[in-house]
Amino acid sequence: MSVVSNPDSPMYVPEKNREIARERANQHKAKIADYLEVRDKIPTGFNQWDRIQEQKKNILNILGGKKDEWEHYKWHYQNAINEASILKRIIRLSDKEISDIEKTATQ
Description:
The termini are far apart. This protein has two domains: 42 residues; 58 residues, no CATH class. It has six helices and no strands. By secondary structure, it is mainly alpha-helical.
């Protein structure tokens, strides 16, 4: 970052203001220190891309879809998962979770 030392410049920021900004930044960093320590361990779409692609293939296989259909909302609408037995094939569910899902589906 360049520092403009000419007080007549519209980009000029007095050193006192810079010190205030640095202090405020340090206070904010302190508030999120616990997050900063673990942020690289938190799964995100960026570091889970391969897993996401495998799940996509699995879902298409289970629902009988084709790769190009995945991009169309109508296919998703027509293939909405509305049975616990199908959902169980896609994600791990305990017997209790399946039972709870089935209870809500019948209400």
